[in-house]
Specification:
The protein is mainly α. It has 15 helices and two strands. Helix 7 crosses helix 9, helix 10 packs antiparallel against helix 11 and helix 12 runs antiparallel to helix 15. The longest helix has 36 residues.
Length: 335
């Protein structure tokens, strides 16, 4: 049995009066009674500093391993620093941009720079092509061949650069190497000609670099939903079309990482060139910037010029990386 209408209305009026008034006619609004943290409060400052506290140990290590050596490299590049200054026979003098002027006026520097850019670009493209192709192949083969390919690739990846370079020299040796016998090239010397020597080094660089790309891209492919790939195959897309239109766009953040890593590694190749071409080839025909800097700094005792070459390499790599990332951001990619 319900209460009369008048009594119910009076009760509701008393309840609203006890709560502090009636509701506004425009509808009900709920307000939170919890106090909001003020800007600049202690809690807000602690939250903003918390991530940096977690990153502090890593930043300290990176500062000791990267910042200080880069500072010393830049400092020496502005000084007159040769064997005379190292031994204390002459005082160290400030040269300003004199070392850079001498470096940029040297025609050999520009030849070596061009050779380094072309060689690094060829290595990056070849490494990405081989690594991505084998990553797709891993998704198509059975468990046993996939395991064998993974173990072989990881073995190549784990091989030290100097060991791998020596093995490749033995394989392509003009007298005892099996490659010339199989190809019927007789006593052809791969390290005598400029382009054949660069090709031999490129093959070794790709051999020891593609496993990183293969494993990383393979992990990314395994994370792609199987329904997406099945839908593309049902639509009649070829393997190349699936890669170009489906996998590559979805794996673009991963491809950015492996591309930048490959650019950095291949641009500063040293061991393979130095070992396989005996320090830069005949008359320096196979020099790259890293080997050129080594010759200037240690073979000629011009440490300031070697440091200047190192600074130029650092600036080039930073510029290439920043431009590449900026182009991707313009395309709307989230990295």
């Amino acid at each position: 049995m319900t209460a009369p209408t008048g009594v119910g209305a009076a009760d509701r009026s008393r309840v609203r009066a006890a709560r502090g008034g009636s509701r506004p006619r425009g509808g009900s609004r709920k307000f939170s009674t919890a106090p909001r943290p003020r800007r600049g409060s202690g809690a807000g400052r602690r939250k903003s500093w918390t991530p940096w506290l977690y990153l502090a140990p890593a930043l300290v290590v990176l500062g000791g391993l990267l910042v200080y050596p880069i500072y010393q490299l830049g400092l020496i590049s502005f000084l007159q620093y040769t064997q005379a200054q190292v031994s204390g026979g002459e005082p160290t003098t400030f040269e300003g941009f004199g070392n850079y002027s001498e470096l940029f006026s040297d025609s050999q520097f520009w030849q070596v720079l061009l050779a380094t850019v072309v060689f690094a670009a060829a290595c990056v493209v070849s490494t990405l092509a081989v690594g991505c192709a084998l990553a797709v192949l891993l998704t198509r083969v059975r468990a046993v061949p996939r395991l064998a390919l993974m173990l072989a690739a990881l073995g190549a990846w784990a091989t030290p650069a100097i060991t791998g370079s020596t093995v490749w020299l033995l394989l392509f040796d003009p007298d005892f190497g099996p490659v010339n016998r199989v190809l019927g090239l007789g006593d052809h010397s791969w390290t005598y000609g400029r382009f054949s020597a660069f090709l031999l080094v490129l093959l070794e660089v790709v051999w020891c670099s593609f496993p990183f790309v293969m494993v990383t891209v393979y992990a990314g492919i395994r994370a792609v939903p199987a329904e997406v790939l099945e839908a593309a195959e049902l639509d009649g897309a070829s393997q190349w079309r699936v890669w170009r239109s489906v996998l590559a766009p979805m794996l673009r953040p991963i491809l950015v990482v492996v591309t930048i890593q490959s650019v950095i590694w291949d641009f500063k190749v040293f061991t393979q060139i130095y070992v396989m071409t005996n320090g830069g080839g005949i008359a320096g025909q196979n020099l790259v910037l890293n080997v050129y800097a080594y010759q200037k700094a240690f073979a000629s005792s011009q440490y300031s010029l070697g440091s200047a070459i190192g600074v130029v390499m650092l600036l080039i790599l930073l510029a290439v990386t920043l431009v590449y990332l900026r182009l991707l951001r313009r395309q709307g990619e989230e990295l």
